[in-house]
User: What shape does this take?
Amino acid sequence: MRLEFTKMHGCGNDYIYLDCLKGMIDNAPELARRLSPRRFSVGSDGLICIAPSQVADATMRMFNADGSESAMCGNGIRCVAQWLYEHKVAGDEMTIETLAGIKHLSRKGEGIWQVEMGAAEFEPALVPVKGLGPDPVINRAIAVDGLPWQVTALSMGNPHCVTVVEDVQSLDLERIGPGFENHPAFPEHVNTEFIQVMGKNHLAMRVWERGSGETLACGTGACASAAAAVMLRLCEPDTDIALDLPGGRLTIRVSEDWQIRMTGPAKTVYTGVVEV
Ligand SMILES: N[C@@H](CCC[C@H](N)C(=O)O)C(=O)O
Assistant: This one.
């Protein structure tokens, strides 16, 4: 069977986008696993289906490279907006339904989208975090593969664990990342952001993503990092925070009541057809 797709990326976080507006497909996890391996197939961080919605302009369903589904994808939702805009399904303002709720997006320039991401949630049951007590996990010591780390855990619709480091570039994430992803404190596994304070309201971040490994960017991870940095008083609320990721820059604003706004690029790379 020939499958048409669009390859898009947001700050180098690249996914295969499928037009499912006529109806959601039932083999998306399998397609994500088959098409994501680099050099052996199309190659991507995962697969995103653009499906119909009763309550918004479209629905986004996102699948990591290992086929697991996530409720939310920050870079993916900007690309879905760009796809809907390019295909004239929606205009400069739109809503996209996700498993983490309906998100409002505004076009801010050529290929630039702003997303109202909703609230960062630190309540342990909502992350979810297990076995670390009833209080929010904020700058708490945990052991990962026998080594001590200070972590802050929160949800952006998907689970995140943020840790502040001295030198983010020197970390061997292939070695460190899986220990966080599979840590017993995170029963649904976790996306882990390693952040370094670069200056006032300026962070550098690398990420180990649940289900996909190290990626060049993570939108929800950037939001989680900015929220954790505000919680730890490393950055200020109600001001733009610049997040430098290996694949580019995202701008995040955290309000006093933890509502998060993300602004960043979304780019179509090519369209293609693959035999599946
Ligand atoms: N890269 C994404 C997040 C993708 C999902 C994540 N790996 C998860 O399983 O929660 C982003 O830009 O937010």
Observations:
- Residues 2-116+265-275 form a domain with the Diaminopimelate Epimerase; Chain A, domain 1 fold (CATH 3.10.310.10).
- The pocket of LBFN2T5F is lined by residues 13, 64, 70, 73-76, 158, 191, 209-212, 215, 218-221 (CB under 6 Å).
- The mean pLDDT is 98.
- The longest helix spans residues 74-86.
